[in-house]
Amino acid sequence: MITGRASSRSRGQDLDWDEAGWQPNKMPFTATSGPKDAAADLDCDVPAKFLELFLTDELLDHVVHQTNPYARQYFQAHSDLPQHSRGNAWKPVSVSELKTFFGLTFLTGYVKKPSTEMYWSVDEVDATPYFSKTMSRNRFQVIWKFLHYNDNAKLDVNDKMYKVRPVLDYIVEKFKKMYQPDKNICIDEGMKLWRGRLSFRVYNPQKPVKYGIKSYVLCDSAIGYCFNMRSYFGEGSSLPDTMFSLLDRLSGPGYTLYMDNFYNSVALCERLLEAQTNVCGTLRKNRGEPQVIRDLVKTDLGTGDKVVRHNDKVMVVAWQDKRLVKMVTTCHQDGMQKVDVWQKGHKDKVAQFKPECIVAYNSHMNGVDKLDQNISYHPFIRRSLNWSKKFVAYLFQMCMFNA
Questions:
Q1: Quick one: 78 and 123 in the same domain?
Q2: Which residue in 375, 107, 106, 361 sits closest to 224, CA to CA?
Q3: 309 pLDDT exceeds 70?
Q4: 64 and 151 share a domain?
Q5: Within a domain: 329
Q6: Neighbours of 287 (CB within 10 A)
Q7: Does 232 reside within a domain?
Q8: What is the mean pLDDT of residues 337-355?
Q9: In whole angstroms, what separates CA 109 from the centre of its chain?
Q10: What radius of gyration do the chain's Cα atoms show?
Q11: Positive or negative CA dihedral for 345, 348, 352, 356?
């Protein structure tokens, strides 16, 4: 094993860490992955039936019972609407009509046009007659205007997601109920674009969507199925508490959780291991790593060299590639693995040896990216000055992907 040229600044320290003799934790995976509950009983090839596992009549009935009163309140407060205002044609919406409305909304993600009005165009060049045959343009727009998800009269000022809370909680519970992830899972950040004013809007220059509502998302690494999510408000629960909240009922059966250096620490890995969950991921400086690895700089190691230290629960690895990469794992060997990679100046892939934990991390950390990528293919989120409508549309996109 290549141990690298560790800096003399740290030799003789780290009495609780060893260099050799690492034995990874090989706990058995005891869960049965795949569809559960009503999803396991569903025997058909009709896509809508799978979507209805999440967007149930019960959920849509809740939306109906929030939308209709909200519309009544609006007209009571605006009794002087212009004669030709489309709002004057309002009539209560039903669950059946709401299904039609959302069906057309989903369809706009597949049939793309510059504006909503163009879906009802009668110009033979760009007409899409299915929309006008299904619902009038005015009816579609007035339903969108009054779409509502929670009772403003009972506003909880301490809950920043109050406007969407019933829908968010209902859908996430369905996510957890309908599918059991496979052994490898990952946690990463998901961003819903929002550039308007919002107290919990965040900016992340490293994400494709740089401004928006951030959520912590737990996904199945293999297929990207969203099992759980939790929105970020800039304060409140600590990261470790958030991680355990996301894991929820997955703690115990022997899952392997992949996380990046925003979340990881040696202490968190040890806590998760006690909860029968293995961990692997990148590691930031001063997150509990041994001093010999904390003090490493790029010039201390040659390309391909590594430094390994472990205690009885976790292993920390520093490996020199184009940059110095630091990893923490509870379940991987300390050996190297051959992989084929693209390199500048070569027409074909070139063989390279990487630490086993890095190969596994690169393979299993992209579950949330799969979710975001698939959602981005057919975005049906319409322009809106209302963040809650856009966020619920984002949840519905997740439902379509999970289905």
A1: yes
A2: 375
A3: yes
A4: yes
A5: yes
A6: 19
A7: no
A8: 84
A9: 20
A10: 26
A11: positive
3-state secondary structure of 400: helix
> Would you call 179 helix, strand, or coil by DSSP?
strand
Phi, psi of 211 (to 5 degrees): -115, 135
Q: How far apart are CA 197 and CA 200, in angstroms?
A: 9
Backbone angles phi, psi at 101, to 5 degrees: -60, -50
Do residues 3 and 54 share a domain? no
Residue 294 inside a domain? The answer is yes
DSSP type of residue 196:
S
In a domain, 7, yes or no: yes
Indicate if 26 and 59 belong to the same structural domain.
no
**Residue environment code for 52-76, b if the CB has 16+ CB neighbours within 10 A, otherwise e:** bbbbeeebbebbbebbbbbbeeeee
Same domain, 314 and 393: no
Number of folded domains that form the chain: 2
Written as six digits, the tokens of 293 are 């690895």
- Classify burial at 26, counting beta carbons within 10 Å of its beta carbon; exposed 0-12, middle 13-18, buried 19 or more: exposed
Q: Taking a C-beta distance cutoff of 8 angstroms, is the pair 31, 255 a contact? A: yes
pLDDT of 230 = 92
Task: Between 227 and 12, name the one with better pLDDT.
Answer: 227
Q: Is residue 144 exposed (0-12), middle (13-18) or buried (19+ Cβ within 10 Å)?
A: middle
Residues 156 and 51 both lie in one domain: yes
Which pLDDT score is estimated for 232?
83
Do residues 265 and 348 both lie within one domain?
yes
- Domain housing 94: 47-160+382-402
**pLDDT tens sequence across 353-395:** 999 999 999 999 999 889 988 888 888 766 666 888 989 999 9
Cα separation values, 2 from 105, 133, 301, 305, Å: 57, 70, 10, 6
Q: Kindly report, residue by residue over 140-154, the tens digit of the pLDDT.
A: 999 999 999 999 889
The residues facing 191 across adjacent strands are 214
Specify whether 8 is located in the same domain as 64: no
